[in-house]
Specification:
By secondary structure, this protein is mainly α. It has one domain. Helix content is about 75%, strand content about 0%. The protein is built from twelve helices and no strands.
């Protein structure tokens, strides 16, 4: 019975990837290019101790803590530490937006245009379309996460290592998958693709604001569900992403 419900899922996944290859490529190039390009420039911006001390003092102000999350104490900071503090949350937002787009595009938007009905009229399983949509966002996020880690690896930024690079890249991918799941739920509730998109962005905004409020009240707190500023617990990274401090900190 379960095999019948998911019949032709692989075929639908291939069709989705063939249809969306250009959009996937542009999103991936934009996100990975921004990550790797910024990493390549950070040594020029914060390569001196004076510049590093100045930016760390700024990152520890209440306004920046509320925006980016708390910066853990360390004996010595590196350029990679600053990169993680500044970039992780913005990369998480961009990846969340990418997942909202693809999750709506492959579910509710296809229903709005009648594509889902056309697919269902053929010999496909009842849940094949949704399964193919889920597999597509999984492939996209894994691709972006792997390319981001490789881009960081080749950026030459001071203080990076392989553990931190993969933690950063796959943490962002895990955060994106979480928002893909939220958007799939929104697509079941909303009456249209536009409504699902709006609802997903409302959830994103509410979680971000809730994280800011909690961080303002307890600056040493990781900040709740939205936080992309979690410590380097791989368990938490799998759930919602994590910041690469412990991997990128000098001993």
């Amino acid at each position: 019975m379960s095999n019948t419900k998911f019949a032709r899922t692989g075929m639908l996944l291939r069709l989705n990837l063939r249809r969306d290859w250009l959009k996937i490529t542009l999103w991936a190039l934009g996100i990975v290019g921004l990550m790797a390009g910024a990493a390549a420039k950070f040594d020029g911006l914060y390569g001196t101790k004076k510049a590093m001390d100045a930016i760390m003092a700024t990152l520890k102000t209440p306004a920046m803590v509320s925006l980016l999350g708390p910066v853990p104490s360390a004996h010595a900071y590196t350029v990679a530490t600053i990169y993680a503090a500044e970039m992780m949350i913005f990369m998480g937002l961009f990846v969340a937006m990418m997942n909202i787009y693809f999750a709506v595009h492959t579910t509710r938007a296809d229903e709005d245009t009648g594509i889902t009905e056309l697919v269902a009229a053929h010999a496909t399983g009842r849940n094949a379309s949704l399964a193919a949509a889920g597999l597509e966002v999984l492939v996209v996020n894994l691709g972006v996460g792997i390319l981001a880690a490789l881009g960081l690896q080749f950026s030459g930024m001071t203080g990076i290592d392989s553990n931190g690079n993969w933690l950063f890249g796959l943490g962002v991918a895990a955060f994106g998958l979480m928002f893909a799941g939220i958007t799939f739920l929104a697509a079941q509730v909303a009456a249209s693709g536009r409504g699902a998109t709006i609802l997903s962005y409302v959830v994103l905004g509410v979680l971000f604001i809730a994280r800011m409020v909690r961080t303002c009240r307890t600056p040493t707190s990781p900040g709740g569900l939205f936080t992309v500023g979690l410590r380097s617990s791989i368990f938490m990274v799998v759930i919602i992403g994590g910041r690469c401090y412990s991997c990128w900190q000098s001993p």
